[in-house]
Amino acid sequence: MTWILRMTRKNIPHTRHPAPMNSSEWSTGYAVLMPFIVLPLVYLIGAFYPGYATWGFNYGGMFPRLVSVGILAIVCLLMIPAVSRKILTKSEQGMAALPGPLRNINRVVLVGLVSALLLFLFIYWRSRALFYGDGFLVLEYLSSSHDAVISGKNLTQLLSILSFRFFLPLLTQALHARPEIVMAVINALGGVVGFWALYAISKRLTDDPIRGRFLFCGMLTSATVILFFGYIENYTWGIALGLWTLYFSLDYAIRGRHPALMVMCALLALMYHAVTVPFLLAAIMSVMLTRRQEDRPWARFGYGWLGVALVAGSFIMVGVLDLAGLNDYFVSIRPTGDNPYWFLSGAHLLDQFNLLLMVAPLGVTLTAYCLIVRRQRKNSPDRAGIILGTTALASVLVAFWIDPALGAPRDWDLLSIVGFPVSLWAAYRFSRKRGFAKHGGALIVPVCLIAVLNVGPNLYEKNHPDRALERLDALLWECPHYQTTYKKAFRVMSWGTTLTGWLGRDDLATKYFLRRVQTESKSPGCWFSLGEIYYKSGSNDSAASCFEQAIEYDSASALYMLSMSFARKRQGLLNEALDYAILGERLDSNDATIPAVQGLILRDLGRFDEAISCFRRSLKIDPDTALHLFNLGFTYYTVGRYDSALVYLQRGYQRNPRLAGIHEPFIMTLLALGRDGDAEQVVREYQAISPSAPGLDYYRAKRAALSKK
Hints:
Layout: H1 2-7, H2 26-48, H3 65-79, H4 81-96, H5 100-103, H6 107-124, H7 135-142, H8 158-175, H9 179-205, H10 209-220, H11 236-255, H12 259-272, H13 277-289, H14 304-323, H15 346-359, H16 361-372, H17 383-401, H18 419-431, H19 434-439, H20 444-462, H21 465-478, H22 492-501, H23 506-519, H24 524-536, H25 540-553, H26 558-571, H27 574-587, H28 593-604, H29 608-621, H30 626-638, H31 642-655, H32 663-672, H33 676-689, H34 696-708
């Protein structure tokens, strides 16, 4: 990273580093290094004691313990001031040894090359653990009809939804890629934009190259940076625009420039996602700070009042919503009978502790250091510090009040916006300490190591879904929002459905649904989900029992009736299965599957004419489905009506030549009608799909045997 930063300067002077520290300076050097040394020890604790209590810093637990210990030992070794200074010196010497054209490359060209490299890396490291967050919900919404109404939670991310809706179809066709891949590419572009915002902020805050690198790398210690890697979620562009809002706010407060760009970025970020409101506050603060002293009499009380006002205002807002019964998205200000999770509960405070250590680990330790080591350089409060502090506090309050049932260990990215402001503010405060001026050069390597240590395992997990699933499932099983004490374990339904619907892990989902029905026995959706799991595993009696419970508590669901019909059919209770299918059609006459199921049951009962009538009804509703065409054609074939069978089997084969079971009746029908040449062609196509398929002689022999009966 030092190489990238140095290369972005048109002329790269060779920086003269301070002489090595003498013995009297060792204690001071290690005192400044303490915030960096603490973090590997914290990660080591998380690696040895992984669980919900340590979910924010136990990523080391995904590796063997010996590997975790070795990595952390190497990190601590590289943090030794003498070692880190030597690494930095070698890096500078390597840069100075580059040929002149490389060191003096045009800045525009260099930014373009670095951006292309970052875009490639971000897409390459794109998260494949797609069950994180609600990215699939966004994709599902985007795939709906264009006249779908944007409402509810989507109103808080209006521009995000509209922009994805516009660009996703265009890029999907242009790139010939799946929608989630295209969404990742769009987000990776936002990541590049956000990366340069971080660089611009570090340049705006200081002209000192050492301090600038420290601030830039300090921001990269935030786990929020993994959103830059093309995450399927839709927060990347909002955060990128928020960071540019922060840059232009600092630029306006310090130099009085670009107010229009500041306002534009602030509004766009807010429209991309409402969670970026702290950056809007930064823009407001920059305007307030540029007013003359006599025009802002509130300044005489100091800026501490603003923090008190933000905290009190947030409490009052949530309290009013709580009392009005409108609090759907914020942590309650008081415990209730079905929700012991309130803003001062131990579980909530533990979540906040873990969240901060996850998204802003260095920010937490540097803040603690600044509070303990009170001696500050003799600087009056500066505008940049006030803006950064206000933004950091506002982001902490946003993360504190938003209900972790919407985020925390599962969808932590919703709350990860706190990462950049806290990391930047803490690094800025720390860089103004007396010790930094003397030892700042030795801290570049430690801060880079912390960035790799925090982001690396996180990114590794995101690109290894099986390992990620194992860790996440263990955390959610212990999460307070998934316990019976929290709204009767209502939250387990979303994760259980994710496990069964997207990931195919019925083995993990079963325990969640059982936890729900043990607390809320009248949950039809939960009984239905359990029934589906048992049905897929072949436990027909258990499946039928669960479907029966689902129907008892919701007798108006055609889906439940249809599933019960399948279960009874497997049990051999065909008449009961038919009754449930008929009830299902009465509830939903537009579902082509229901009359098709009736037809299958009637065919098993030998009532072929009625079965044909049912299959015709399914085709009337859905005339282009290969399976419905096959069902009708196969029934005609079964009763020996080969002319009619050929019509529907041929249409079904044209729709889907790989449809299971269609080849044999189609070939036999062609032979029965004397069309041996066509039958031979279908056999060749079948053998191309399945090399073990029999030849034409097999079907001729089978046809001859049937003719003798």
